[in-house]
Structures are given as C-alpha cells and as structure tokens.
Write a structure and sequence with these properties.
It is built from 19 helices and 16 strands. The protein is α/β, with parallel strands linked by helices. Among the domains are: 131 residues, 3-Layer(aba) Sandwich (Rossmann fold); 164 residues, P-loop containing nucleotide triphosphate hydrolases (Rossmann fold, 3-Layer(aba) Sandwich). Strands 2-1-3-4-5 form a five-stranded parallel β-sheet, sandwiched between helices. A five-stranded parallel β-sheet has the order 9-10-13-8-14.
Length: 500
Amino acid sequence: MKLRILAVDDSEINLHYLRRILESEGYEVENAADGRSAWEALVSGRFHLVITDLRMPELSGLELLRRVRAERMPVGVIMLTAYGEPTDALHAMKSGADDFIAKPCDPDRLRFLVKRTLERRELIDELEQLRKQASDSYHFHTMVSRSPRMRKIFDLIEQVGPIGSTVLIQGETGTGKELVARAVHAADTRRNGPFVALNCAVLNDALLESELFGHEKGAFTGAERRKIGRFELANGGTLLLDEAGDIPASLQPKLLRVLQTGQFERVGGTETVQVDVRIIAASHKILEQEMKAGRFRADLFYRLNVIRIDLPPLRDRIEDIPLLATHFLQQHRTEGGSRIAEIDPEAMQALLRHPWPGNVRELENAIRAAVALSMGRVLHRDDLPESVVPRSAERRRGSALIDIDRSLPDVTADLIGQVEREYFTQLLTQFKGNVARCARHSGLSRRSVTQKLQKYALERDQFKPSRRRSPIVRKRIGREILEEHEAKETTDLQPVTVVS
C-alpha cells in the first residue's frame, strides 16, 4: 500500500509543485486548499503525513496542527514557512510539528524531510502499539512480556499454581523473581491466604532463625516477649525464601524438617508448631552448583527443586525492552503526575543497546529517573541516566530544530539560524542563564549549548537575575575568594566578572 500524504496550501501553484515532487517518489498525494477542508479529509480518511502551510484563511496551519495533536492522530506534520517567519516556525515545533521547511521548497530537502518524518512516525506508531499491547495480550498478573521464553514461564505458572508444590525460582538479580513468586501465589488455591517474603541474605544466623521460626520470651538477651516467625505468619498461604542460596548450613536441617513435616519449634521453646505453607525459594545463585560445592545440603536442594523456573536475563530477551519501557513510562508518569507521553525513537535505541546488568529492575529505575527529569512530553535520550547513556562523548538528538544540513540553500539555512537564535534566547530567559538546565530541556549536551551561545553571541550572564552582595561580605571574603565562590555557582567554564 502506498503511503498517503495530504498537502495543504491556499496556493494552487504550490500544491501542484508539491504533488509533482511527491508523486515522483511513489507517494499517493491528496490536496486541500485550506485548513478546514484539510481537517475534514483527515477525519474521514487515513493519511501518514500532512504537509501544510502556516498561514491560511479560516483555519491556519498552526491550528490544524494543534487539532491533529489534540486528537492524537497517528500522522506526521511538516510545516511550510515563508522566509522571515522564525517565530511562527518555532511555535509550530513547540506545538508538535515533526519538521518545517521554508518556501520555495528545495526538492532534495523536501524528499529528505518527508522520508525522515515518515520513518520517525512509523517508530512512534510501533511504540504506541506496544503501549496498547502492554495492557492487553502481553500482560500477565503484574508482568509484561512478548518473549517466547517468558510466555512459556507464564504458561507454567498457570499450570503449577494450583498444585501447591514447592517452587524454585532462579535468575540474576533484578529479573523479577518476586513477581513470579507472587504470580504463583495468585494462581494457587491459597491465593486468599497471606503472601510473606523474607530475604535470607540480609540477616545473620541467629536473627534469621528467629525471623523464620519465631522465638519465646527470654530465649535470648533482648527477647522480652514472644515473637511469631514468618512460617506462622504465612500459615494458609505462601512463604517466599528470597536468596535461599544464602541460608546458613546451621539452619538448613531445621528448614528441611519443616518442608518434610510442616512442623518446627520456636527458638527457646519446646512446643511443636504445625503449619500449612507453600514454600517458594528464589536465588540468584545456581543451587545445584552450591550443592556440588558442599555449601548447600543435597536433600534440601531436592526438596526445593520440585518445580524449577529459570528466569532469563533481560539481555536474552531484548524484544521485551520496548514493551517494558513503555509499561514503566505509563506507570511512573501516572504516579508522578508527569505530562510525558512517549519515548523518543533515539532514546528507545539507546535502551536497546544497553546490556542491562541489573535486568528489569535497572530498566525500571532508569525510566523512573528519566520521567522525573524530563521536562517535556517526550522522553529523550539525554533524559536517561548516565549509566545508560554515557555523557563522555557529545550525543545529539535528531531534532530538526537544531540539526542543520550544511548542504541547505542559504535562504533555508538562514531561516533555521533565526529560529535557533530565538529558541536559545527563550531557553536562556526561561532558565535564567542556567546552561545545564537549558541543555537538559533542549536535549543537547552542555558543550553543544555553549557552542550555540557563542555562535549567536548570546551572553548567559545577561539572562541571570542580578545579585548584590553587602559591602561587609565583599570586604570579608576578598576579591580572590569571591571569584572562587562565584565560579562554583556557575554551570559552565565561562569566566566570572566581579564587580568591585
């Protein structure tokens, strides 16, 4: 199927020019003579791209763009601007235009922008589809996945959940072992009973025994009253022994007895306690290897290893990264009240390239941090933590507002230069000359922002609020100390001017 483009202009000559260029590239083109007829065409038909003039009677191109974005139509928009309209072009970009081009359009530039915008919108549409799928067929309890390996695990959970057998979950840190354990519990006939979890790696031998089995009053110094252990708390439900590979050898026989008989005594007590608990053990260690090394009892291993679930690391199921990223984006933007709505394709590519040693947990933390730092509707690559996107080398986004093609005609390049200068002037005004915040908001590195300011002769100090120091403070700290103090307050390497 041909890609459909809607060309909108009140000039018949311009429409004919656009149609001739675009149809020669194999696109199907429909013309509209004004914004109102263009909107009617968009409502009634399916288009992949709109190329519209800014200034038109009745309904302007800017109003048409705002309607398209308000209705979240899956269509790209390129604005046509006359030479000398940098402010209009800037408003169009801020309202959600994918790109802009000055009239008269250079054919090669037009072909390039159309191709790039259509490719970008295709990625955005795919991410939107993944977002819908995240709450649909790929959702299982509190987990999402499209990976065949994970889908098999989901099927296994549904199969073994009602059986009540002991389950051993193995996987690297951050792969979601507790989520799997909770899903097993939810599929069990004990689902209405308690789900109790204990990390066996964070307590010493004595404390772990007390946490598991409880203790009687006076069992040891500080035991001022009876304590109910996790086994009793989980009675009628499920007990997750997280990091079971770290259970000390001294406690393994007592744990084995509970698995065999459901009976134990509290620390310092003689009364036998009977419980009905499903045990789920989880470990980032391979318990079979621990058993062969003599660090884990063989009989306990075989008691735990009735049903085993091996969780794959995130690097082995990269097809889940876009799905998980969009899932976490929706989750944390809702929690934090953020207006961020989507992930930029370049940011998604950075997520796909990262090896994720911390697995799903690291990915969730990265998205949570990015949502907190992002100031716009789109999560960009430079919003991601430095552990995911190193800042050592300059990383630029493919933004049309700041991506100047050196081969552009002088007229178009000059227009973009005007728009850029206006854009960075507004940034400096908004953030009071703070280069770091300008960089974060624009998606550029601080070095790139500094270069832009030098290019357009924009002095950041002109946008900073005036600060006055009392004569007493100036006299006390002296000129050299004052210079050092103000240098620490600045966000780049520009020299500090000290007023005597």
